[in-house]
Protein 1
Amino acid sequence: MAYPWSTRLAAAGSTAATAVALMLAAAQPASAAMPFGEVDPDTVAQFRLHQVVSQDGADGTDAAVAAVERTGAVGHVDVRTLLTTGGHTGIAGLCHDTGLSASLKPGGYCWKKEDDRSSSWNPTDGGWTPQGLSLPYSDSGTPSDGTWQGIPAQAATWHHGTDLGNPDPAKRRGDEYARLTLVNTTNAAPTYHHLLLVQPVRNADGTGDFRVVAGNHVDGVVWYGDRAFVANGRYLQVYDLRHIWKLNRQGKEVGVDGTTSSGLWHNYAVPMVAMYQTTTGGTPCSVTSGTTPCLNSLSLDRTGGQDALVSAEYKKDAAGGRVVRWPLDATTKLPQGHASVAYSSPVWSMQGAATDGTNWYLAGTCPTGAGGGTPADPYSCVHRARANAAPHVMTSAPVYTQNLAYSWSTDRLWGINERINSTEGRRVVFSVSTP
């Protein structure tokens, strides 16, 4: 769910949950007769990703990464070692009620208790909330998905907030910082590591440092080769998985101090090496209309002979969020900078979009009379549509389902949800077959 375009009323207590239930009861989702319709190509031709931080450009991002590594304060860990070494252990199977149709053979796993129950509504310590989910997708000439060097794996993103339920806006701190989670799903109970997302800095004297990427909601993620693309509203960030840093002090401080590195009690950090935005200057993105779309979820489309990122817009309690395809350059593996096609979705509060090349799968509010769940926890729905045709509900889904990711290797659709329940937990990572 995109912040600040959304309000996280569903977090901490019965009053907030009741408010959400009343809000959803009042909302009347759009008729299923409305199509998942193509946006005017003349408008789409104006959609751009403007590069504002370049991995190889004059801004010195590569130099900043090298400067940090020269300090000796950080070690280097490759992805394979990380996936196969220790970490947190999750729970096998769907440990919470999901609403998923049994006919679609649902599967998945849960996070460990602390990650399942973390709450950004905590007025003291705050907490983490999951958002994005991706399989590892190869960027080679022989595309594959779902494994990294033969290891079944996934990536997820989380943002951190504190006291978001406080009526005093001065005390609410949303999107303070963010992390990327790399998951080994070889066994039914997954193992995983959290990596703090940081921006490298090269100081005037040539020394290196890093800081958190502030204001980062990490709405969506795509793990593509050695890179993790992360959506954050009008921004698309690129993180380099060839430079996973092992921090040598697990403290609150962030950055390098001599030969010591620390990052909010994380063992690992990963640097941002490029960034794009859909706007120019400091103007905000525009949801549902205009030529500066928002990036509120992210998935990969590798059909049609050219891989592309797919972004989707979140419009609270309304339809019209746009799904946009952004082609990737076959040589650089980075965005070409322009959109190739876009669709306007009739799904209310759309939280995720993915495609198998023929069908589109859209996570959002269930239409009236569908879904189920409880008044405090109504299920989300996964809708299925084809271009310029009306969507239909494929299945109800876990409360507040977020990003979706499609596996061409297994013909299964994956998803993640963000529901906050600090007592029992309600979060799962799930998959279903696609009929």
Protein 2
Amino acid sequence: MGTEFASLPPAKSGGRPRGVNLREVINALLSLERSGCQWDMLPHDLPPRSSVFESFSTWREDGSWKLMVDVLREGVRESLAQQPEPTPSAAASTLKP
């Protein structure tokens, strides 16, 4: 996996290898967010909704989802900000009363 997936949780040791591509799971979750569609209406070229929902539920419960969203948010802020600081305080500090 590339650096963009550095914050994804690692595979569990032992057992079968993953049966679903994590990049496609993320694509499905982003598709849900972008379109606002229901789980049943995921496009057919993405993984099955049960696989996507299972991954999302696991990540949400163990805190991985929050970490992934935080990493993505900081990356977007870094790419859009004039200042190198990726936190909201970077923009707030430039405001004058």
